[in-house]
Amino acid sequence: MKIVPSDIEIAQQATMLPIEQIAARLDIPVDALDHYGKYKAKVGLDYFKAQEGNPVGKLILVTAITPTPAGEGKTTTSVGLGDGLNRIGKRAVICLREPSLGPSFGMKGGAAGGGYAQVMPMEDINLHFTGDFHAITSAHNLLAAMVDNHLHHGNALGLDPNRIVWKRVMDMNDRALRQIVVGLGGISNGVTHESGFDITVASEVMAIFCLSQTLMELRERLGRIIIGYTREKKPVTAAELKANGAMTVLLKDALRPNLVQTLENNPAFVHGGPFANIAHGCNSVLATKMALRISDYTVTEAGFGADLGAEKFLDIKCRQAGLTPDAVVLVATVRALKMHGGVDKKDLKTPNAGAVERGMVNLEKHLENLTGYGLPVVVAINRFSADTDEEFKVIETRCAKLGVKAVPATHWADGGAGAEELARAVVAVTEQSQAKFKLLYLDDLPLVEKIRTVAQKIYGAKDIVVSAKVRAKLEEFQQAGFGKFPVCMAKTQYSFSTDATLRGRPTGFDVEIREVKVSAGAGFVVVLTGEIMTMPGLPKVPAAEAIDINDSGQVVGLF
Questions:
Q1: pLDDT at position 110, please?
Q2: Before 121, cis peptide (omega within 30)?
Q3: Do 332 and 382 have their domain in common?
């Protein structure tokens, strides 16, 4: 494979078109755009509403097998597939999440694709972009300030300071802020109580933002947020604090989807970015539905492996938004399969077809899960330079026996041209196989049984372990009217189980439910397993150490 420069070098050499030219390819008029410089624009909600009667294009979900820590290239594949579809004459739009500053300056890096399959302007998208995350942070923290102000001025709603569940957020990895005490320094500084910080992408405001289709729906959902409880355990909401109106004002511009372009000048919506564990890990419903109304194919991705991201996309986002996917692209890599076949991380570049064969059990379980939703699947083998033809043959042969097409893709090195075969396979499967989409569970199933269903059917667990305390809380949610909500399972992305060291397709394990909480505004119950962090920390050597700016004002070291 050819030598590929760094992501930022490729991005800085790219030729971008004015954003109105990108919009014109989708027949979006200039007066529907609010420009954020030459190459970024928000598309007005009035335009979205005006497209309501349009025919709906095909929806393609890109997900992945259980990943290595470096990830297997879902976003890169989404961009490459979008470019590939456009190259073969289809009108395709890519829909992605916005990157968080925390991972960008931490360990993972950005989320704008990679190599020759990127969305542009890469530096803007990975940094402040159009300010959506700042608006979400501000709306969340406005509510936190109003909670503490309410306590300070008499606490008419009877909030118990020890039962306040609404923390503060910031879009940065900062472990020192996970647990804090506010109100120190005397009575003039408010009521002293414990609190903490989550990262912005873990905020319920972010989840609500991405599931809302109108400003009024956004306002209503924000009002349902539970900020704490009285001593009698009665929930207190943001609407009772009269905070949701002002929060909506802060979010009114952010709610409009962001239009950008790929390296090949194809359209992409990059909008919203909920945490893929504590929330549903998908871009906004607004952006997805807008793309569907103005294109032949909408390509979108969901965070982490298919057991997390795809499950949430299908059981939460599709359930709430009335979306029906037409096909799924399951991204696999030789290195990830070798890891699941027992190869140590440091040896993943060494050819080992036997390990790939052993690791295929992980891919097979994901295929079983996805076809269980009634969806046709194409396997995209994201190619790396160390991969061998013998290793590829193992994947293709096993997939063929399972009745699924596996397609090697070189979009990282070759852009859209390297994903043309994948694009043709996706078109073929949507034309030949009618999706018969069905949800994993019905709304009326009790919450504890929804959790058991996900654990057993998707993870392959023997059963769940639910303490009396957690079971009582689930019963409280049930009695309070939250029983019809879907469940949002939070667990490690590195295994089907809750033990990150169990590779492949583990069996005979139980899933212990550590904690449950209701996101009443977002409309789901969060189920915490293992040691899931809602405020990550920076690694020993954070990416921020390598990021700088030169004399010309050009960013260097950003991936």
A1: 66
A2: yes
A3: yes
Task: Write out the catalytic residue numbers.
Answer: 74, 76, 97, 108, 276, 304, 384, 412
Name the β-bridge partners of 406.
Answer: 379
How does pLDDT run across 331-357, given as a tens digit for each residue?
A: 999 999 999 999 998 999 999 999 999
Report the DSSP pairing between strands 267-270 and 258-262: antiparallel
149 and 258 housed in the same domain: no
Instruction: Using DSSP bridges, classify how beta strands 159-164 and 226-230 pair: parallel, antiparallel or unpaired.
Output: antiparallel
Task: Give the domain extent around 358.
Answer: 7-131+254-432
Residue 440 lies in a domain: no
Do residues 495 and 506 lie in contact, with contact meaning Cβ atoms separated by under 8 Å?
Answer: yes
438 within some domain: no
Give the residues of the chain that fall short of pLDDT 50.
none
Tokens (6 digits) for 242: 């009269």
The residue count of the chain comes to 559
Any domain includes 416: yes
CA dihedral 113, 492, 426, 99 (to 10 degrees): -30
- Could you give the CA distance from residue 400 to residue 378 in angstroms, rounded to a whole number? 11
Task: Enumerate residues 6+ apart whose C-beta is below 8 A from 559.
Answer: 6, 7, 8, 109, 110, 114, 126, 543
- The neighbour count for residue 190, using CB atoms within 10 Å, is 19
Count: domains in the chain: 3
CB–CB of 289/502 below 8 Å? no
CATH number at 167 reads: 3.30.1510.10
